[in-house]
Automatic annotation (TrEMBL):
InterPro entries xref list: ADH-like_C, ADH-like_N, ER, GroES-like_sf, NAD(P)-bd_dom_sf, Zn-ADH-like_protein
Domain of life: Eukaryota
Stored SMART domains: PKS_ER
Protein name from the UniProt record: Quinone oxidoreductase-like protein 2
A Gene Ontology term for the protein's cellular component: mitochondrion
Organism this protein belongs to: Amphibalanus amphitrite
GO molecular function: oxidoreductase activity
Pfam families (alphabetical): ADH_N, ADH_zinc_N
Residue ranges of every copy of the Enoyl reductase (ER) domain listed in the record: 35-348
């Protein structure tokens, strides 16, 4: 009897504590005005809806689209105040009453599709935006894999049908997306990768990742340099996330029946191509957007992320992380990328 009372007291002592834990304010980097620095603020947690999940964020990827959103120049700008950060890893803190796909305490990778993001100690999301992973998968890798590798995988495998031994040119090859494309093309598809990047340090990195040639970008010489290193008339698949004049020069290197993947515009210049220029070499231009795959074909989107996780777990690919910043230095993290100092991924370390 006394034991039962003691047990009852313990349960009632524990319950209010865990509620208190969830009710405790959490820190988040908040965008209050487009074009202004983020501010780290204390926010109050909201109660979960039945289909929602609360995740303790341990690492969050800092991506080009976060920068564009903060600057107010991205598609579908959010209402302010807003917490950016759509790519994160962490542990499930709490699940809504209808959620069965993830459990409290489980380790997850997340790609937030809408609402407040992961530049924060906590994020509220839905199971549809989460990917449960083994406890052996490091949080850092978890926040550095999904966006870039799933995008590159969709582009190279599904859209360009890359084959072993093909020649592949990757521009912005030391950036987050480019390095994932180099890694996949060289180490998974066993292709001959020619990387284009900005500095000698970046060239060393992409060679280490598996590129057999790393070229600096020079407007007049790209085509000749490619011919010099490959001895070939053209490149089978070109993966471009720069746009602008880099794209214009890169497509001059495409082979007969080659494919050019249009994955992004790091230069912020959208090139315009005369369709007549596609005819002499019968080449294809291929658009690619992971974000839009998520809406248009969710099964393909989820499979690309799951495949990326599996490739990582089997040791075939390895995301490169050039810097990690604490939440308080989130603005430094954004500048590090904007100033083209980063290679591969940049993360926030929020633990
Ligand atoms: N299609 C999709 O689903 C998808 C997914 C992820 C990202 N993206 C897009 O892909 C692009 C690259 O993303 P990311 O994550 O790889 O970015 P990132 O890590 O910042 O890398 C971009 C790289 O672009 C190169 N670059 C060349 N010309 C540039 C210029 N004029 N201004 C700035 N950078 C220039 C830089 O490398 P060098 O200094 O070596 O030239 C830079 O490191 C972005 O536009 C992003 O929005 C698209």
């Amino acid at each position: 009897m006394a034991l039962r009372r003691l047990a009852g007291n313990l349960v009632s002592a524990v319950r209010p504590l865990s509620c208190l834990q969830l009710a405790r304010n959490y820190r988040a980097a908040v965008l209050t005005e487009f074009g202004r620095p983020l501010q780290v603020q204390d926010l109050e947690p909201k109660a979960l809806a039945p289909d929602e999940v609360r995740v303790a964020v341990y690492n969050c990827g800092v991506n080009a689209s976060d920068i564009l959103t903060c600057q107010g120049v991205y598609e579908n700008l959010p209402n302010l105040p807003f917490v950016p950060g759509f790519e994160f890893s962490g542990e499930v803190l709490e699940v809504g009453s209808e959620v069965t796909a993830v459990q409290k305490g489980g380790r997850v990778i997340g790609l937030q599709s809408s609402g407040s993001g992961g530049f924060a100690e906590q994020i509220v999301t839905t199971a549809a935006d989460l990917f449960p992973v083994d406890n052996s998968l490091e949080f850092e890798a978890g926040a550095a894999l999904a966006d870039t590798y799933a995008t590159a995988l969709l582009g190279l495998q599904r859209r360009a049908a890359l084959q072993k031994g093909d020649t592949v040119m990757v521009t912005a090859a030391a950036g987050g997306l480019g390095l994932a494309a180099v890694d996949l093309a060289a180490n998974v598809f066993k292709c001959q990768v020619i990387a284009v990047c900005g500095t000698e340090d970046k060239a060393s990195l992409v060679r280490e990742k598996g590129a057999f040639a790393a070229l600096g970008f020079h407007r007049e010489h790209l085509k000749k340099k490619v011919r010099d290193v490959t001895g070939l008339k053209g490149i089978k698949v070109i993966f471009d996330a720069v746009g602008g004049e880099v794209f214009e020069e890169a497509i001059k290197c495409v082979a007969h029946e080659g494919k050019v993947i249009v994955a992004g515009f790091a230069s912020r210049t959208v090139p315009h191509v005369a369709t007549s220029s596609l005819l002499p070499r019968s080449f294809s231009l291929i658009g690619l957007s992971l974000r839009h795959y998520r809406e248009a074909d969710n099964a393909v989107f989820r499979q690309a992320v799951l495949d990326s996780i599996e490739l990582y777990e089997s040791g075939l690919i390895a995301p490169h992380i050039s810097a990690q910043y604490p939440l308080e230095q989130v603005n430094e993290a954004l500048s590090f990328i904007s100033e083209r100092k980063s290679t591969g991924k940049v993360l926030l370390d929020i633990r």
